[in-house]
Design brief:
The structure holds 2 protein chains of 2 kinds.
Chain A lengths: L1 E7 L5 H14 L4 E6 L7 H7 L4 E4 L9 H15 L3 E5 L6 H11 L6 E8 L3 H17 L3 E5 L6 H14 L4 E4 L8 H6 L3
Chain B lengths: L10 H4 L7 E11 L6 H21 L4 E10 L5 E6 L7 E4 L7 E11 L6 H13 L5 E2 L1
The chains are: A alpha/beta, B alpha+beta.
Chain lengths: 195, 140
């Protein structure tokens, strides 16, 4: 079983991109399962993803990178035994630091063969995010294999250039792509990174 | 912060200081329509709710919206979804309630910054009351 973690701040488009990647993976004939994590006790995204025909396990009331670490390990084992997927796609809460999450997986889930991290960035809110939650955004970027700067349709060229420069400076060796999940711009290249 | 939530347990957020401490509200409420509304009336009510909520959050000092999202689900009548990441921008509405639904379940999930944890449930409840003239009884 392989694992794709789709990280990124709240409202960056994780669920929308998850569904696009899942669609492309399904078309390739791969079996999938999804783990949805919400910090609140009541979730919204899990039901929506399930309506799209994907098997979903949900973890509520905390974050799988810290307060629900043991829950993540147990849920991955449940997913493996129940669905035996080729890929499990994990959508943590937008407050999660994926590097911490990967530590849990490496320590407790030896059945995972490949781990990949996609981090989404909301181009429209980049300056505000840097001002208020910069350490979290930095942690999310540093853990990424691929960074997708999303919502590029909502910013002008000058602002986008600034976002791309800032993201590249914080992303290490990650591949940085620019996309709009809403319009489809750049999505083919993003999907190609995982399928 | 609503009952049962544990955002304070995020070790990686603790060092960010008060301005980066999220307030979380996540709950469901049963909604009864009397009389049964048309689909566009439901959309108007949700739009009013989100506008009232944005106003309440702004007044409370909200510095950043993580997300404001949720659904209004009426069995047999489909769902209306809503999503916003800004107090100023128009929220995204998806789907819709079809037919003459009398009862629905409202799910609301709000994560914001700059608002005291303890104030958020009252802000959401007041917004719903102002928008619809009814009281929401939340189930967490």
């Amino acid at each position: 079983m392989n694992l794709l973690c789709i990280a990124g701040f709240l409202g960056s488009g994780k669920t929308t991109v998850l569904l696009e990647i899942a669609r492309a993976m399904t078309e390739e004939g791969w079996r999938l399962a999804v783990i949805e994590n919400e910090i609140g006790e009541v979730g919204v995204d899990g039901g929506y993803v399930r309506e799209q025909g994907l098997p979903v396990q949900e973890l509520f009331g905390g974050c799988i990178c810290c307060t629900l670490q043991s829950g993540l390990a147990e849920t991955l084992q449940t997913v493996q035994s129940r669905y035996a997927p080729d890929w499990v796609i994990v959508e943590p809460t937008g407050l999660a630091a994926p590097g911490d999450l990967l530590g849990v997986i490496v320590d407790h889930c030896p059945e995972i063969d490949i781990i990949r991290v996609l981090t989404l960035v909301d181009a429209a809110r980049w300056p505000m995010l840097l001002e208020i939650v910069e350490p979290l955004v930095t942690a999310q970027l540093k853990a990424a294999d691929v960074v997708a700067v999303n919502k590029i349709d909502q910013v002008d060229d000058e602002a986008l250039a600034s976002v791309m420069q800032g993201v590249r400076a914080l992303s290490g060796d990650a591949t940085v792509l620019r996309v709009s999940a809403a319009t489809g711009a750049g999505m083919e290249r993003l999907l190609g990174a995982f399928v | 912060m609503a009952k049962g939530h544990d955002a304070g347990g995020h070790d990686h957020l603790r060092h960010l200081g008060a301005k980066a401490t999220p307030a979380v509200f996540a709950a469901r409420a049963d909604v009864v329509f009397a009389p049964s509304p048309q689909a566009d009336q439901v959309e108007v009510a949700i739009t009013r709710f989100l506008a009232a909520l944005s106003g309440g959050l702004a007044d409370a000092g909200c510095t950043l919206v993580g997300h404001i999202k949720g659904t209004l689900a009426a069995p047999g009548h489909a769902d209306l979804g809503f999503h916003a990441t800004s107090l100023a921008a128009r929220p995204l509405l998806t789907g819709g309630i079809a037919g003459d639904a009398r009862e629905a379940v409202l799910t609301v999930n709000v994560i914001v910054f700059g608002v005291p944890d303890g104030d958020l449930p009252a802000i959401v409840t007041e917004a719903w009351s102002r928008a619809t003239g009814t009281q929401a009884v939340w189930r967490h």
